[in-house]
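#struct-help
A.M.: can someone run this one for me? Single chain, 577 residues.
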Amino acid sequence: MSATQDRKLAQAAAALAAGEHAVAERLLRKVLRREPRHPGALSWLGIALASSGRQAESLECFRRAVAVDPQAPGMHLNLGNALIKAGAVDQAVASFNQALALRPDYPEALNSLGQAHAQLGSREQAVEWLRRALTLRPDYAEAHNNLGEVLLRLDRVAEAVASFRSAIALKPGDADFQCDLGIALSLQQRWEEAILQYQRALALDPAFADAHYNLGNAWLGQQRWAQAIAHYERALALDPAFADAHYNLGLARLYRQEFESGWRGYERRLECAESRGSARKDAASVALYERLPRWLGPADTATREVAIWAEQGIGDQLLFSTLLPELAGTGVPFVYEVDRRLLGAYERAFPAQRFVPQEEPPREVLQRASRVLLAGSLPRYFRTSVESFGRQPAKLLSALPGRTDYYRTQLAALGPGLKVALSWRSSRKVRSAPDKSAPLEQLAPLLGLEGTRFVDVQYGDTAAERRLAEDASGARLLRFDDVDFYSDLDEMLAILEACDLVITTSNATAHFAGALGKRAWLLYLADQAPFHYWAHGDRHRSLWYPSVEIVTAPHLADWRSLAAHAAEKLRTVTGYR
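D.P.: on it. Structure tokens below:
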């Protein structure tokens, strides 16, 4: 190679380092006109093209470079990285393995192989490869950060925090590293520390849309709605297509009961990985729904039949179904999908309407309808203001009368006193509120109240928890052991109906009670509503379920204190002091 060619390569390398990709491309193409098989020029041109977003051309350059110099580990590494960007992760793994076959002590190839395995879902293998890279090169900041990301996906959050801190110690000026540590701290609900990390990221890069979005999430975690909204809006100003920011902005507005704008953001939920994954058990059903024509609301009167598809958990399904009476009032024919466990209850309550059980894939009648709509999109058309909730039904469903009478007889055998159904556990985690599940033994101040008999309606095996709680309170909880409280929902509804009061944390039981129109107290900590639909707006009543009272206060930040408060409140009902 001539001195002129060497000079052009040096200039191209300097241009690449300075981010002047067009300049680098021009110089490298001049070199390749003289030497079309120059592996270094081909590889650098691939890097320049990739940095300009021209992935297909970049990939072709790396393939040519490998063909020219197949014994160079770096050529295989570059090709593998390009294949990752192209979505060909399996092929990328083969390239990284080839690089390592040529050079086993190649930390960059080990790092990339770890990232590839993480994308393929082989996270434990990814951890192994990334740790090998760090053994060879302990000061490899990117590998520390990549390891942290994989550990987060494995829910090993404390280890992830340590990895992110190692990355930042080595490279404190990287805004991505600062933001990733913030995400890990947010998962630990260390909100103040997380906010500081996001602010550090934004000090390094004020136009970092992801940092604004995650800072919004941290404010959302503290239920500081105005600050959350401000940062979601800033993220959207920087990236108007940021679906997660649209969705979370919608949630923040729903918490503030700004319904019309809130539902607009909520409509972006299928574009977000987390909420999309919770919409249906089968991702193929969500994809099928997206291909079908959408119902545009009550004004869309020319519709032959609307199919309302179920979504999310059973509590959400009950919540959205409170709009059934108004949907029926539009006169638009519809078929409504419901959880199979509640099919009979809906058919009893709405005998003139057509219901089908939820299945995967959905039944043909749901696919053949002229228009479709997810149940969670109904509020957009019927609940656009606080005032509109005045139309909520006082009662939606009914228990089977014969079964209710049976349980009333069973409860009467306990003797005099208020009969209270109790549920305390939820399997659903939310980051925007403290834990929704109360350790049963911490409810002892409530359980030992004179003149009250508690009935355990918590689904799952509760025997060990009951023993601890009974030892702590001196009270005994009745449990109908022959009832499967997860599957036998007609029995569950009858038991709730037979009781005088339902006390529950945020779980499906609260929705069952609300749908029955049963008097219920919903308990949650520190006046931090676990979900937007439990936000009470200083009314301490559920907008969605008129029979549900919200029992909480900012100073009641632990379950024992909240239980003592509820016990005092219950004394006014029983008359016992």
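A.M.: thanks! The mean pLDDT is 93.
D.P.: also worth noting: Residues 559-574 form the longest helix (16 residues).
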